[in-house]
Amino acid sequence: MSNKNILDSLRNIKPNYIHAYSLALALFIAVAVPSFPTTVHPEVQAFYNYMEAIPPGSVFVMDSSSQSVSTEMSVFLALAKWIHIWKLPLKVIVVSTHGAAGPLNVASVMRIMPEQYKKLKTYGVDWVWLGYNPGFETNIAAFASDIRKTYPVDVYGTPLDQIPMMATGNPKTGGPINSAWDFYALNFDTSNQEIMAAYVRIFGEIYNVPIVREIGTTAWASCGPYIPRYMPVWFFSSWVVEYEALLGFKGLNMMTYSADVFFSMSLVGIVLIQNLAWYLNRRKMKLEGKVVPKWM
Amino acid sequence: MDVINLWMAIVGVGAMTIIFRDNPLFHYIEANTVGALAGTFLVMGTLSLRDIAVTPISQGAYIFIIPIVLASMQFLTFIPRFRWLARYPVAIMGGTGVGLTLRALISTEIINQIVPTINEALLTTGNWFTSVSSIYFLVTMVLTIAYFTFGYDLKGRWKMLNTLARVLILIGLGAEAGSTFAVGLNATSTWYNIMSYLQKGLGIA
Question: For residues B74 and B97, what is the distance between their CA atoms, to the nearest angstrom?
């Protein structure tokens, strides 16, 4: 086969083949569980160290509020983070403030989290799940000032005062956990700008609760200016693969785009080759005196 | 065999089949997903209303009748004669939101955006890469602000600044688009999810 044919074939490669390739790779990972080398960015290491350094017994808030369309993806985006938090001796409050699919996210995480990590926390003692409330900034403001007014019962309908962690889990007083003044830090996984800004304004500015999170590229534009002041640690969510490596996971490396992941780089290679093929094709048409369409 | 995990795997495979061609399984999965999400929204909304309003009212906190009445008024938008009444709950929610936002607006949206931006631009400690990044950041920031603030055509040698600003803006947007595209390439993760569900469903995980 000539070079021209190879380039033309690459230029016209069908998405089906790329997905078939990714399926084959997924099958390979699932069966062989290999371990790829991973280089950890300083930001990811700092995030990991920060989480490790949180005093035992502190109250950590997780807002799982991704939009419905991204639920499946975001669950796996967040799984490493959830597992790490489950391994740490923290008291975790899980809420959803944006998109009723948030509770589905939590349910999905609990479904896919390996048993050895899931059993590290006992419901009602180490973590509670308060469910979903609409209202954006008003809801977040009410939640910060008085948890019981916004979430009088947990997701199973149990009044908060009957849940041991909420009744006596305050690390400062040994009494009930009442408001954002009792929280150590917050993590949320939505890139919704209203929620993000509300957390920064209310938790960050008024209650001085630091926000720690991984951040998507699309959320970067809105989060960027706040990071130095309100987010002591952060990293791009595309670096979750490195977070997984820090946690000692072997072979997952499924998330997401990284220079260390062979699959990602092979796809980038395909894109580069396709662009090259396009350029050569266009040049050839010009040399042959053909009219090059505007879209080329 | 775990039926739910197996079902999740089937849903995953069904959703991905659209990549190859349109087919009845995809439409079935699509309808299922939309229906399940609509049901979830309805249940979550109803539970929320029960917990934070109906239950307190049944326990004597009658003040919660007010938000229920206000929320119900929004449905009057469907009756032309009383449509004007639907504006009140919207106005109250808007006013409350603005009031809450204003509490910390100045510090978060103005002061604490400017200060870190200046700090970032003047960051000279560290290695040569940090210094170069800071200079790049400073130049991009000044030119971009100038480009949008003084949005008229510059003439003569000053025109170069406008061109440079456009180039820098396009570099930024290109990097953002490229990064988003690269994340979108992540099909392995989706297939891996499907495999995980399948393994658990068949009890071989």
Answer: 17
